[in-house]
Structures are given as C-alpha cells and as structure tokens.
Design brief:
single chain; alpha+beta; Thrombin, subunit H; Pdz3 Domain; six-stranded antiparallel barrel; 7 helices; disordered N terminus
C-alpha cells in the first residue's frame, strides 16, 4: 500500500475542487446558450423551432411515403384500427347466426331416434331469411335451427347444397316486423397476403365472436375427401375454431371475402392456420342453389382409375406402353356415351388392384379443359365450373401417341 503525506493530500483535494468548479461553470454556460437558442428559434420566422412531442390524440403530422409513425388515437381513446374493428363488428355481428342441427341415430333397439348434431355459423345474405353456410354444417341434418342475435330460435330448411365446394344455403322465416341486415358480398379477386381480415362466428357455441388476423396465403388447394379438392382457398391466421365453420371472413370495409371452412390443427384448436372458401365461388353458385337446389355440372361418362406407380410398373412389365407417370387410365367407356362419341377407348384386360377390379390397355388421360389430371379429384376440379352441353378438350395417350379430342359434357349425377 502506498502512503501519502498530509501536504500531498491537501494538494490533491484542491485540484479535485477546482475541476468540479470548472465542470459546473461549463454546464451552466451550455444551458444558458441552449435557452437563448430555443427562445430565438421560437420567435423568428425562418429559423427552426424547438421540437416537442405532442399528445397522440392531437397528432396531425402527415408521414412521408414509407415512414412509420405512431398510431393515432381518436377522440374516444381508441386507435383507428380498433375503431375499424369495432365498427365492423357493430354493423354485422347481428348478421351472423348460430346454426345447430339434429340428426337421426339408431338406438340399441335399432329404432331411429333424433339426437343433437353439430353446430356452426352462417351469414344472412338476404332479407327474406336466406343464410349461407358450409355444407358439412348441415349435412345429414334431421332438423335445423337458427339462433339470432336477439336470442330467438327459428327452425330452418335446406334450400340447396353443393358438396363439391362445401357450401349450402338454408332459409328461415324472419319474425314479423323484423328487418334482417344481410352481409354484403365483396370479391376474392386482388386479395393480398398481409391484408387485414376479420372473422365473425360462434366458436364452441360462444355466439358472435370476433377474431382478427391477416391473409397468410392464397390459392391453397385443400383435399376435402377422396374425390374433392377445394381450390383457391384463402389461408388466414385469424382464429377459426369448431363452430366458426360457415361464418364470414371480412375485409377492412366489412365486405365478405370468404366463408370460414376449416382449420389445420393437430390439437383440434386454432394454431393460426385456417382456411376460407373464396366468396367469388359463392357468388357464382348461390343463385343456382336457391333456384335449383343444386349446382348442375358437366361430366365425361367413363370409368377411370388413377395411374399409380405400382400399376405403371405392372403395365410396362406386361408389355403395355405407358409414356407418362401420372394420369387417369380409362377402364371402361359405355356404348353411346359422350366419351365413346368423342373417340375415347377403355381397356380390354381385367386386373385386380387391392379391392378394385378394372381394365388396363385403355387411353391415359393427362389433361381436361387445359388442366393437368393426375387423380379423380383433379377431374372433378377441372369440370367444376363447366355446365352440361359445354365442350371441353381432353388430352390423352393411346400407346405412345398423344391425342386431343373435344367432348360434349353430360350432366353429372349425385352418384358420380
């Protein structure tokens, strides 16, 4: 340890005192100069004024292009985004109904007994009581009930269903003097990933719940079942749970842009991946559902089988020419059918694959109406918007030869 004399200690203390005094004097000078500059700036026209942060509610500054600014508050104390959400909910929550069903079951004595079915949501689309929802919400329903925002319950009937697009229209009789408020149709064209969306529905029976999110993806093909692919689905992270099915997906203007249909969830709850049917599909088919009760679609009258890898390998080993890996193998063409009239040919040798028996050696279809075909679901999708009597181009291979013919469509039956 180093020791200092008394004299040295006095000298060091004096130096420290002088240094502190100099720092205080310098600080006072800077503060004085700053005050002079601020007062001069505030009083001169042409010199920049001192900046201060105004309260958010009073902010009127217009941001430059691309500049991110703090969210302004309205006079009510809500942000503009919150006011937009509140406005949409207040305008249209009463336009969303809760749908409950009863289905017919068989008891232990093999007697048919009604029991509670599922539940979902629906959007009022007409003042007469027409409601748009999902087909799977009302499928197999023995009875339908619609619960309105005022708590009243009304029995409804199915007007029309379209399993191909998982859409349905039901109808109830509005109370005397009641004025229903339909949700306006928007469009699903020109949607953008990142665009704000809102969903109103009845998740888990909690009526008229609002959730908010963005469009997470567009044009998603979703396999609904073995014969149906829902095309151009809207993906959103807005919470969609069981009970939301059939409810509206809205844009920031309060227009319906989609019909909430399903979620992807390992747990059964919302994990931020939900899907909605684009509203343009509903706009196209709803008038026909109301008028006809169904959607009339065109069909090619033939039996076809998916060209799977095992089948391709078997046919090649058997000496058949198979120039492609994917397509539909025409098993049978019925006499007088539109397929036969167009020149398509079925197979001639019966084989068994699993539990299926079909013919090989026929034409292999690879494209219908300019859409690639790799499965029966693809064929349904390709003909989804084609009516009976319309003509479509069909591309196929016969041996190694690629051919193209035009087929006049017939009406597809419910069994096809």
């Amino acid at each position: 340890m180093k020791l200092y004399s008394k004299k040295a200690v006095i000298v060091i203390a004096g130096i420290s005192f002088l240094s502190a005094a100099m720092l205080i004097a310098a600080g006072s000078f800077i503060i004085a100069r700053t005050g002079i500059w601020s007062s001069r700036s505030a009083g001169t026209g042409g010199s920049p004024a001192a900046l201060s942060a105004p309260p958010l509610a009073a902010s009127t500054t217009q941001p430059a292009s691309g500049q991110i600014t703090e969210t302004a508050l309205s006079d009510s104390g809500y942000t503009l985004d919150e006011m937009e959400n509140i406005s949409i909910y207040e305008r249209y929550n009463e336009s969303v109904v809760n749908i409950t069903t009863e289905v017919m079951a068989i008891n232990w004595f093999l007697d048919p007994v009604p029991q509670s079915g599922g539940s979902g949501s629906g959007s009022i689309i007409d003042e007469k009581g027409y409601v748009l929802t999902n087909n799977h919400v009302v499928k197999d329903a023995y009875k339908l009930y619609v619960d309105l925002a005022d708590g009243s319950r009304h029995e409804a009937t199915v007007v029309g269903t379209d399993p191909q697009n998982d859409l349905a229209v039901i109808k109830f009789s509005p109370p005397a003097g009641a004025k229903l408020k339909p949700i306006p149709f928007g469009t699903s064209k020109n949607l953008k990933v990142g665009q704000k969306v809102l969903a109103i529905g009845n998740p888990f029976g909690l009526e008229r719940t609002l959730t908010k999110g963005i469009i997470s993806g567009l044009g998603r093909p979703i396999q609904k079942d073995s014969s149906t692919i829902l095309q151009n689905m809207i993906q959103t992270d807005a919470s969609i749970n069981p009970g939301n099915s059939g409810g509206p997906l809205l844009n920031a203007r309060g227009e319906m842009i989609g019909i909430n249909t399903m979620i992807y969830s390992p747990s059964g709850g919302s994990v931020g991946i939900g899907f909605a049917i684009p509203v343009d599909t509903a706009v196209r088919i709803v008038p026909e559902l109301i008028k006809e009760g169904k959607v009339r679609r065109g069909w090619i009258d033939m039996d076809a089988f998916i060209l799977v890898p095992d089948l391709v390998e078997y046919m090649r080993k058997a000496g058949y020419s198979v120039p492609v890996e994917k397509g539909l193998l025409v098993s049978q063409v019925r006499p007088g059918s539109n397929a036969e009239k167009a020149g398509l040919r079925g197979g001639t040798k019966a084989v068994r694959y699993g539990s299926s028996v079909f013919n090989i050696g026929g034409d292999i279809i690879t494209s219908v109406d300019n859409q690639e075909i790799a499965s029966v679901a693809d064929l349904y999708t390709a003909l989804e918007d084609n009516k009976p009597g319309e003509k479509v181009w069909v591309e196929f291979y016969r041996g190694n030869q690629k051919n193209r013919v035009q087929v006049t469509l017939i009406e597809r039956t419910q069994n096809e």
